[in-house]
Inverse folding.
């Protein structure tokens, strides 16, 4: 199976996507298109089987900012104490029929390259993701680290874990 990673298109069939995580599926089916085409507040990249055009995975990203004074990340402590530009992974999901086949890895790689582009165009200190407990090992495989929150942690249940990947690390990974 040959996979292509590209931006979500209006004509794409999202309704048959099933990752096994209801919130991941609901977001992709109901909100990814609205956020990208109507509100323009995020972009969704899809992993598509080239032959069948079946969507086998997706990742939604947006630009954001992060106050470093609320985090314990040593390399960011050297930067100015005001909101710093970041790339945020909003959602990532792989269809249950295609899990454990490297689709998630390809989607993460796409976002690493996207972060390099954003850094060159407007500036960026890294990538952040609010990971579920079960997703932490997945992100750790790609050098994301838990970003200890000092202040402003949300009381969301189940709690999500803020993870961070610095531009310095991204440059090393992509060399």
């Amino acid at each position: 199976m040959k996979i292509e990673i590209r931006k979500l298109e209006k004509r794409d069939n999202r309704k048959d996507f099933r990752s096994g995580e209801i919130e991941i599926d609901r977001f992709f089916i109901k909100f990814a298109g609205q956020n990208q085409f109507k509100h323009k507040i995020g972009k969704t990249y899809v992993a598509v089987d080239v032959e069948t055009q079946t969507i086998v995975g997706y990742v939604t990203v947006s630009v954001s900012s992060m106050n470093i004074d609320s985090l314990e990340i040593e390399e960011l402590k050297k930067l100015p104490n005001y909101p710093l530009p970041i790339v945020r992974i909003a959602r990532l999901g792989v269809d249950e029929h295609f899990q454990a086949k490297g689709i998630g890895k390809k989607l993460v790689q796409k976002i690493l390259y996207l972060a390099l582009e954003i850094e060159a165009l407007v500036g960026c200190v890294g990538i952040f993701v609010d990971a579920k407990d079960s997703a932490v090992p997945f992100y750790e495989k790609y050098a994301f680290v838990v970003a200890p929150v000092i202040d402003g942690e949300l009381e969301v249940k189940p709690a999500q874990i803020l993870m961070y990947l610095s531009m310095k690390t991204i440059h090393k990974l992509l060399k």
Summary: Helices lie at 22-38, 103-121, 136-140, 167-173. The chain has four helices and seven strands.
